[in-house]
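Hi L., both proteins are below.
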Amino acid sequence: MIVEALYTDFSRISEVVTCIRNANNAEQFDGLRINFENGFEGETAAERREPTTPGDIQLFADAAHLAAEGDLPLHVSISFHWDEIVEYDGNSKSGYQHSIDQTDGVDIQVPQDSAATIQRLASEEVNYAEGSGRTWAVTIETSNFIRSKNSVDR
């Protein structure tokens, strides 16, 4: 079984790394997983939903640095719509590409309940993660999935 610590804000990562350094092997996490959605810089809720500034990308870089201090892999949740170009460390890339570059792996959140739609929406992120040698998974966020008998294409 793999057990990872999941956090939605950056401040807890340092505490987890300190705890792991002082724990015996049975008490250690296997990795860190973070979801910063709605925690980015920005004036509006829409701007805070995805990385749009170098400071947003730096959150992932800082988290990866702290995780590495504890010899932990870092995986992050990203969204399929993080396409805005961000200039970071001399490179202009989409937010999802920078996010993948900073981490060991990602889960791509797709709020849909059709397999065809999910595949279409997550394909760029999956291809980039695979090409970068990162692990990936697609997570489905939907409230309609359980209520709909025929919601997933088979």
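That was the first. Here is the second:
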Amino acid sequence: MPGLFVVYEKAAPGVGRITSSMQVLNEVDYAAQLEATGQRYYFVPLDGHTGYFELDENDDVVAINSRDPWPGALVQDTVAVLEVATLPGVPATDVRITGPSTDATITHDGGDLKLRVGLPGEYAISFEAFPFRRFETRLTVTPTALPVPEATP
């Protein structure tokens, strides 16, 4: 992953002084070299998928943070046709749902995401609620067993 090594030394309690920064071709070897010489460093990913800046009230950078995975999960990853599937605590974001009966994007206002699907099959549910990384999960919808009528004599 492309990134920038920021080498620093402890300047005071809770404060690091940047001594150098560098982008290198072989990041694994450079990290090993820094560690072998006891140098402290912070790796800044240069793609928008794994890191972000934390800003203060003046929009100045105060920290570089890692984009963590969204911690949620479906209550049940298998439901019957027309049974409600719940993904609790989804942040406000656009949610994409794809499967045999749909390929749609919906705007979710935040809170529990409840889905009811009319056709059996495999469905993908995905969203990107910044600062979390892109989330994707699978929902299996099984056919509903139809009641068998009793035979009448």
